[in-house]
Amino acid sequence: MAFGLSDRVKEIAPSPTLSIDTKTKELVSQGYDIINLSVGEPDFGTPEPAANAGIEAIKAGFTKYTAVPGIVDLRKAIARKLKEENGLDYEMEDIIVSNGAKHSLYNAFMAVCNPGDEVILPAPYWVSYPEMIRLSGAVPVVIETDESTGFKITPEMLERAVTPKTKVLLLNSPSNPTGAVYSPDELKALAKVIEKHEFYVMSDEIYEKLVYGIEQISIASVSEAMKQRALIVNGFSKTFAMTGWRVGYIAGDRAVIKAMTSFQSHTTANPTSISQKAAVKALECFDSEMVDRFRNRRDYVLQRINEMPLITCIEPQGAFYVFPNVAEILGKSFKGQTIDSANTFAGLLLEHANIALVPGEGFGAPNNIRISYAVSDDHLKKAMDRLEQFLREVE
Ligand SMILES: Cc1ncc(COP(=O)(O)O)c(C=O)c1O
Questions:
Q1: Cα–Cα distance, 194 to 300 (Å, whole number)
Q2: How confident is the model over 266-303, as pLDDT tens digits?
Q3: Where are the domains of the chain?
Q4: What is the mean pLDDT of the chain?
Q5: The pLDDT value given to residue 1
Q6: Closest alpha carbon to 356 in 44, 21, 18
Q7: What kind of fold does domain 7-32+288-392 have according to CATH?
Q8: Pocket probe mutation, ligand 1, options 176, 240, 268, 372, max atoms within 8 Å of Cβ
Q9: Of 126, 135, 244, nearest in space to 178 by CA
Q10: C-alpha of residue 232 to centroid of ligand 1, in Å
Q11: For ligand 1, what atom is nearest to the CA of residue 17?
């Protein structure tokens, strides 16, 4: 019996990426030969030493509550990582571990935003950001970008979006869905604008290791003023192929971390004890071969797409997505059906070409589609053949 839902949840749209993934898995279980290019997780396994550390944790009975912000070993290991890889000084008290970076982000918005605060959100954006911002009572202030700036904001665009109500700027580099990566110079130019104002920079760096031919740095490392404003978000899902383990973290201002810890203490308490032990080990296990394999696949997909009719794609420099532009397809038809949106295009591809991918609407980019190349080379080739065949039949 339903007695009504809260206004808060009534306004939330379900994650379109997860819905497509669920629908695709259902079709596959019914025997359809669908190639799933909608996934946001590596097709590699969790590093064996990390998985074994999880098994050992269970065997050793490390299966009880832990400290709310995470075990000392893990927070110290993350602090070491930030020092060695990003040149940033944080102590374990400046770090909180949560149940995935998604959870970290949600906690952070809840900890810093008041109703009516503005969060500057460059589009195309990861689908969960606007919903999380709204759940915290804040308002997303979207800066539209497209291929002409490589899907990146410029200092001028940022300056125009800042108001006295700005509380947070959200940056995601490398980006899901576009794969865009801000160069060190681009980050320094943005920092010049940010340093004139007083707001947090939530920097989602979850794809930091997946970059191809470009230097990736954390915006927190640009200056002391930036470090003071930065809340660095990261996690183990992408870099260590540990999506199911649910471990993410934030490093930043100690007062914010303390507030997030109080908030987390009443909602989920600690992240899973077993996963934390696995995560400590994972930090020693980065596999750079994974990056080479992703880079080869990116090159392959880009070349294939740019040889196809009606679709173009700029070169992404990170993550494991390409974000082709399909504007030319919109308004045309397939087997008599008008392709009036990226959403319709994705639906027709699923039905007639057995390919699942994510239409751009959910990312704030209705002229684009997102293709994940975190699938085997064989599947990728088959999927590109199917896409090409479909496009040849569009009229
Ligand atoms: C940009 C971005 N941030 C955060 C996350 C959340 O990752 P997780 O909660 O698995 O750590 C994702 C996952 O798709 C992502 O793409």
A1: 38
A2: 999 999 999 999 999 999 999 899 999 999 999 999 99
A3: 7-32+288-392, 48-282
A4: 96
A5: 66
A6: 21
A7: Aspartate Aminotransferase, domain 1 (3.90.1150)
A8: 176
A9: 126
A10: 13
A11: 14
Cα–ligand 1 centroid distance for 4 (angstroms): 31
Residue whose CB lies within 8 A of the most ligand 1 atoms, among 237, 243, 370, for a mutation test: 237
Per-residue pLDDT at 349: 95
Average pLDDT over residues 4-18: 82
Return the C-alpha torsion angle 9, 15, 18, 20, nearest 10.
Answer: 110
Pocket of ligand 1 contains residue 221 by CB under 6 Å: no
**Average pLDDT over every residue of 363-391:** 97
Pairing between β-strand 118-123 and β-strand 166-172 as defined by DSSP bridges: parallel
| Ligand 1 midpoint to CA 97 (Å) | 14
CB of 248 within 6 A of ligand 1: the answer is yes
pTM of the model: 0.96
Tens digit of pLDDT for each residue in 139-166? 999 999 999 999 999 999 999 999 999 9
Q: Cβ distance 301 to 105 under 8 Å? A: no
Architecture of domain 48-282: 3-Layer(aba) Sandwich (3.40)
Query: What is the atom index within ligand 1 of the atom nearest the CA of 99?
Result: 9
